[in-house]
TrEMBL record:
It comes from Alkalimonas delamerensis. Signal peptide: none annotated. SMART domains: Y1_Tnp. This is Transposase. It comes from the Bacteria. Residues 215-230 have a biased composition (Basic residues). Residues 9-124 form the Transposase IS200-like domain. PANTHER family: TRANSPOSASE IS200-LIKE DOMAIN-CONTAINING PROTEIN (PTHR34322:SF2), TRANSPOSASE, Y1_TNP DOMAIN-CONTAINING (PTHR34322).
Amino acid sequence: MARLPRVHLAGCPEHIIQRGNNRQVCFASEEDFAAYAHWLKEYSDAFGVHVHAWVFMTNHVHLLCTASDARGISLMMQSLGRQYVRYFNRQYRRSGTLWEGRFKSCLVQEEHYILAVYRYIEMNPVRAGMVASPADYHWSSYASNALGKATALCQPHPSYLALAASDTERQQAYRDLFRSELSEAMLADIRSTIKSGMALGNERFKQEVEALTGRRQHKGKAGRPRKDRI
C-alpha cells in the first residue's frame, strides 16, 4: 500500500523525529553530533526552515521547526539525511541505510502546544535517565533557549519571544516552565501525534488543518472490517 504524503503547511510549526534503523546508534562520537548540527544549519538555511528546538540522542533526533515553504522541511530532511549517511558510512567503514525509513512529523498548534513541544524535546535526555537536568546535556537547544548561549542554529518562535520583553526575563520565564512536568495527557498527545502524523492541537486547529490540506486529522474508530472488503 502506498504511503500517504506527510502534511506540511508553510508557516506552521512541525515536530519532527528521525530514528536510527532498528534503533541503532546514529551518533558514536562528539564529532558525529557536531557534523549533524553543521549540516542541519546548512540545509535549514538553504530551504528556509527555522529550527526552534532540537535534541540529538544517540539513536534519534527531535526537531521543532517552521518552514517558509510547504516543501522546506521535506527537502531539508532529505538532504540532511543523505549527507549525514554518507559521512557516517565513510567514518565507520560501513555501507547501507542508517535511518529507519522516512522521518515522522506532525503539525503543532502555536497556542497552548508549541512550548510544550519545546519542553518535551529538551527533556528527552532527562526522561531517558542520561542526565538529571536538561542543562547537563550538551546536544540540545536548552542552553540557548533557557540559558542564553549564543548559537546560529536555534531561531526563536514568536511564542517563545512572547514569554517576556527582555532576553534575561525570557530565559528565566522559560526555565520556570521546567519547574513542573508535562501532564501525562500532554505526553500522550505528543507521542501519539508524532507517531500517527496527525496534528497536535485542539479541535478547532485540527479542523483547520483538515480544511486546508484535505487530510483527516482524527483517528478512525476501531472495528471489524466489512465483509465486502478484502
